[in-house]
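On to my pick:
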Amino acid sequence: MRILNLIMILICIPLVLVGCIIRTLYPIYDKNNIILTDILSGSWVKKSDAKEWVELWQFVYEEDGLYNLSLITKYGINNQIEIDTAYFEAVVCDVNKHKYLDLTPDYKQIFKADLSNRFDCAFLIPSHTFLKFEISGNQLYLYIPSFDAIENILAKGSYNLSYKKLGKNDYIITADTKELQKFISDDEIHPIIFKAEPQVLFKK
């Protein structure tokens, strides 16, 4: 098991350097703001300029606001098409009139799968990440929180949010759920951390 963990850590290093994922120790939802109705089930695709899909998000609704999410990524290496799959448990919630996806790795699926996939490996420390989203017709808009914006806010000490620095360009937010909800709902902070253009997925 120690050898397996070491292999996984080595595999996942490139993602930490490139991906800059916001990780939190606690979820952004509580039992009072989970959206219990099924609003995401099905397959949503992100297309390339050539109109071919490059990402496929497959949501399967379980119960009580919980989905199983398979994130399938297609990319080219040396003129060959490679496909990787990352597995998550996703909870949909509403915080201050905005909808969010709270993601945690589905460890049962990860340890069954090919360890070449990297996105879910970033969560070797049990943790969460979150995305804001909107649905309009057959389109799903995903707003990814800005790692740099949150890092700048924390570095300046302009907001008292509990976090632990794990290394250069790597930290985990240790604030509890109530503190997290307050942070992302702040009228000044919210537009800063979600300023980037959304990724657009289309319903298959």
Observations:
- Confidence is low (pLDDT under 50) at residues 1-19.
- Residues 21-203 form one domain.
- The first strand starts at residue 42 and ends at 47.
- Helices lie at 2-18, 107-110, 147-156, 177-185, 190-193.
